[in-house]
Amino acid sequence: MRARDTDWDGVRLHVVTGKGGTGKTTVAAALALALASGGRKVLLVEVEGRQGIAQVFDLPPLPYEERKIAIAPGGGDVYALAIDPEEAMLEYLEMFYGMRRAGKALTKMGVVDFATTIAPGFRDVLVTGKTSEAVRRKDKTGRRIYDAVVLDAPPTGRVARFLNVTNEVAGLARVGPIKNHADLVNGVVASPETAVHFVTLLEEMPVQETLDGIGELREAGLPPGGIFTNMVRESLLPASVLDVAAKGRFDAAELALGLKAAGLAEGGADATAVAEALAEEIAEHAHRTRLERRERRSLDTSGRPRYELPLLADGVDLAGLYELAESIHAQGAA
Prior knowledge:
Largest sheet: 8 strands, mixed
Helix content: 40-55%
Radius of gyration: 24 Å
Distance between the termini: 17 Å
Number of helices: 14
Number of strands: 8
Strand content: 5-15%
Strand order of the largest sheet: 3-4-2-5-1-6-7-8
Low-confidence stretches: none
Structural class: alpha/beta
């Protein structure tokens, strides 16, 4: 289902996931820019400790604090936060137990790392909790601080478990502050205010992982959003030519005559060599186009809105990021 003008107006938390290599962080950054366009304020959050946001925006490593990193088209502001689980733990201890000093001592002793290693679900609760707090935060007038929050989440294979914090803490605590904290987080993550978007390529493995991820979210009662197909290459040849080439019936000899007549090759031997090389490229392009059509049909079975983002000829730099943001906005995803 190719999407146009999809209504995400009620969504405050946009979670972005995808198989490694699909450009997940780049799409999350572009989505944040698109959501901020026109004067809005958006927070872009990362949780994996890779400093991916800093790399995409060509910035020094980000500290554990919210800071403005970009101006969106139309004057909006994009802020960024690279969550540090250790700092999030200290905030948690201070918030619920008034134990920040004790927490720092525990950090020096390695207890924090120990706790999050033996109970990795607790680490997820900490970082998703920090994100959901940003979604809920209001100023003195009662207005939300951020119009939207974009979370650059873990890869597709882990996202359902990462977001399903209620299950993750079930073995840690059934009552008390940890359970209450998880319930608050779940109240945001599982609500209509949240959408989990998937980034994929038109290739079999990332497409299948996307479909599996959507299925896992539905089983967990979490809200799937849209599908962003990244690095899409437009076909340069008419469908009729591609169909003939895909069936192996492309006439290289006829192409050689055309090259020679157009003065693009010198002599019959040169025209034949060039034509054969071109025919091989055309056949490969036709084969790839056919596979991409198949993957698009597979994605359509998900029933989720789809958005296609172009392959950037010059790679992902700041200008390319704004180009992707414009594409997202033009397709109604922001």
